[in-house]
Amino acid sequence: MTPTRDQVSLHDTWDLAPLYADGPAWDCDFRELQAQYPGLALFEGKLGASSVALRDAMEASKQVNLRIERLAQYASLKTSEDSSNSESLTREGQLENLMTRIGEITAYMDPEIQAIDDSTFESFLATPELREWQIPLRKLRRLKPHTLSTPEERLLALGYTALRGHAETFSQLTNVDMDFGKITDEHGAEKELTQSSYGSFLVKRDAGLRKTAFHQFYKEFGAHQYTLASTLASSVRSDVFSARARHYPGARAAALYRDDVPVSVYDNLISTVRSNLAPLFRYYALRKRVLKLDEIHAYDTGVPIVPKIETHVSFDEATKKVIAALEPLGAEYSAVLADGLGAGRWCDRYENKGKRSGAFSSGGYQGPPYILMNYKDDVFADIYTLAHEAGHSMHTWYAKRSQPFQTYDYPIFLAEVASTFNEELLTHHLLEHTEDRAMRAYLINRQIDDIRGTVYRQTMFAEFEKLTHEAEERGDALTLDAFRQIYRGLLKDYFGDDFVLDAELDLECLRIPHFYNAFYVYKYATGLSAAVSLARQVLSEGQPAVDRYVGFLKSGGSEFPLPTLRKAGVDMEQPAPIEQTLALFERRVGELEELLG
Question: Whose CB has fewer CB within 10 Å in the chain, the N or C terminal residue?
Answer without folding.
Answer: C
